[in-house]
Design goal:
With 315 residues, the protein is α/β, with parallel strands linked by helices. The protein folds into three domains: 2-83, Nucleic acid-binding proteins (OB fold (Dihydrolipoamide Acetyltransferase, E2P)); 100-240, Rossmann fold; 257-314, Ribonucleotide Reductase Protein R1, domain 1 (Orthogonal Bundle), CATH 1.10.40. 23% of the residues lie in helices and 23% in strands. The chain contains seven helices and 13 strands. It has helices at residues 50-53, 114-126, 143-158, 174-177, 196-203, 283-289, 295-314, and strands at 2-10, 13-18, 24-29, 35-37, 58-60, 68-74, 77-83, 100-106, 132-136, 163-165, 185-190, 229-233, 236-240. The strands form three sheets. The protein has a six-stranded mixed sheet, with helices on both faces. Strand 9 (132-136), helix 3 and strand 10 (163-165) form a beta-alpha-beta unit. The longest helix is centred in the last third of the chain and has 20 residues, at 295-314. The radius of gyration is 21 Å and the shape is globular. Bound molecules: guanosine-5'-triphosphate, magnesium ion (MG) and zinc ion. Guanosine-5'-triphosphate is lined by residues 136-137, 139-140, 166-169, 190, 192-198, 211-214, 221, 223-225, 242-243. Residues 196-197, 224-225, 240 line the site of magnesium ion (MG).
C-alpha cells in the first residue's frame, strides 16, 4: 500500500500525488472501502449528533481534495483504499487538511458584503481557522471609496484578522501577499466572480485558469471554476475552488455563536452566560455605545442568532 495526497477530484476521478515518488497518478475510490472506523472524537465524526455518536463505529467517507490516503494498484487501475484522519474538514469549500483560508472579497462586482464576511468568519471559526482577508479589484473604485472600506476593515485588523488589498490585473499588492503561502496548504474561498482564479493566474501565469467577467445584469458571477484543485506554489499548495452564491449555517448552536465573534472575548460583560442581545447592563451593548464594538458586527450577530434559532424550530 502506498500513501498519496489528493490534489483534484473531477467526476469520481481523483488525481493523487504519490508521497514517496512525487509522481502524479489518476485513481478511483472503491465504494466498499470508503468505510473507516472512527473514534468518538475523530474529525470524521464531527457532524454526527451527540446521541448517535457513542454507537457510531464506522461511517462512510468520501475522499476529498487535501486528503492523505492509502492507495494500491489492481490490474491497470489505481484505487484509494483508505482515508487518513483529517486535521480539519471544510465543507465550503470542500477541502481537507487546510493550513489557512484566504477569504476573498471584491470591492465591487460583486459588491463587498459585511454580512457575508461576518458569516464566513463564524463558519471558518468553527473549523478553528482564522482566515486571511483579501480584498480584490481595488482598481475598480475611487480612492475615497477604497479609503472608506479600508477604514471599516481596520476594525477587523484590530480584532486580529490580517487584511490584504490587491489588484490582480496589474499584480498590485502581490509583493506582500506571496510570502504568506510558504510551506502551507492554502485555500482560496469566496463568492463567485470575486477573482480567485485571477489571483492564482497572477501568481502562476502558466496555470492559465479560466476566468470570466461577472454578469452585468445580475452583478453576479457565473461559477466559472467547477472543481477544487490544489496547485503547488512556494513549497506549499494553493487550492482554487468554485465560488458560492449562498451560504448557510449548518451545525452551529445559537449558544456557540458568540465564541466566533472573537472580540467578545476582549469585551467585559459582567453576566455569565449572557447572550449579548438585549440584556440590560450587558457589556457588549455598552461597548457598542462606546464605539468599541462595530455596530454592524453586532447587528449581524443578532440576525445570525435569530436565523439559527428559527432554523432549529423547523426540525
Ligand atoms: N479589474 C479587476 N478585475 C478583476 C480582478 N480580479 C479579478 N477580476 C475579474 O473578475 C472576473 C471574475 O474573476 P474570476 O477569477 O473568474 O473569479 P472567481 O472568483 O474565480 O469566480 P468563480 O470561479 O466563479 O468562483 C474576471 O473577469 C476577472 O478578470 C482585479 O483585481 N481587478
Ligand atoms: Mg474561479
Ligand atoms: Zn452581555
Amino acid at each position: 500500500m502506498k500513501k498519496g495526497f489528493i490534489t483534484r477530484l473531477i467526476a469520481g476521478q481523483y488525481q493523487l500525488k504519490d508521497i514517496e515518488s512525487g509522481i502524479i497518478i489518476e485513481a478511483k475510490a472503491r465504494g466498499k472501502l470508503r468505510f473507516v472506523r472512527v473514534d468518538k472524537d475523530d474529525t470524521f465524526n464531527k457532524n454526527i449528533g451527540e446521541r448517535t455518536k457513542k454507537e457510531q463505529k464506522t461511517i462512510q467517507i468520501s475522499p476529498k481534495v487535501g486528503d492523505f490516503v492509502y492507495f494500491e494498484k489492481q490490474e491497470d487501475q489505481y484505487f484509494i483504499t483508505e482515508v487518513l484522519p483529517r486535521i480539519n474538514d471544510l465543507k465550503r469549500p470542500d477541502v481537507a487538511n487546510v493550513d489557512q483560508v484566504l477569504l476573498l472579497f471584491s470591492v465591487i462586482r460583486p459588491d463587498f458584503s459585511f454580512t457575508l464576511l461576518d458569516k464566513f468568519l463564524v463558519i471558518l471559526g468553527q473549523e478553528n481557522l482564522k482566515p486571511v482577508l483579501v480584498v480584490s479589484k481595488i482598481d475598480l473604485v475611487s480612492e475615497e471609496f477604497l479609503k472608506d472600506l479600508q477604514n471599516k476593515l481596520k476594525y477587523y485588523e484590530n480584532i486580529g484578522y490580517d487584511v490584504y488589498y490587491i489588484n490582480s490585473k496589474q499584480r498590485i499588492g502581490f509583493d506582500v501577499l506571496t510570502h504568506i503561502f510558504k510551506d502551507k496548504t492554502s485555500v482560496l474561498a469566496g463568492q463567485t466572480g470575486v477573482g480567485k482564479s485571477t489571483l492564482l493566474n497572477a501568481l502562476m501565469p502558466e496555470l492559465n485558469l479560466k476566468t470570466q467577467e461577472i454578469s452585468d445584469a445580475l452583478n453576479r458571477g457565473k461559477h466559472t471554476t467547477r472543481h477544487s484543485e490544489l496547485y503547488p506554489f512556494n513549497e506549499g499548495y494553493i487550492c482554487d475552488t468554485p465560488g458560492f452564491s449562498k451560504i448557510d449555517f449548518n451545525t452551529i448552536r445559537e449558544s456557540e455563536l458568540k465564541d466566533y465573534f472573537i472580540e467578545f472575548q476582549e469585551i467585559e460583560c459582567k453576566f455569565r452566560d449572557c447572550k449579548h442581545i438585549n440584556e440590560l447592563g450587558c457589556g457588549v451593548l455598552e461597548a457598542i455605545k462606546d464605539d468599541e464594538m462595530m455596530k454592524s458586527r453586532h447587528e449581524n450577530y443578532v440576525s445570525f442568532y435569530n436565523e439559527i434559532a428559527n432554523r432549529k424550530k423547523i426540525y
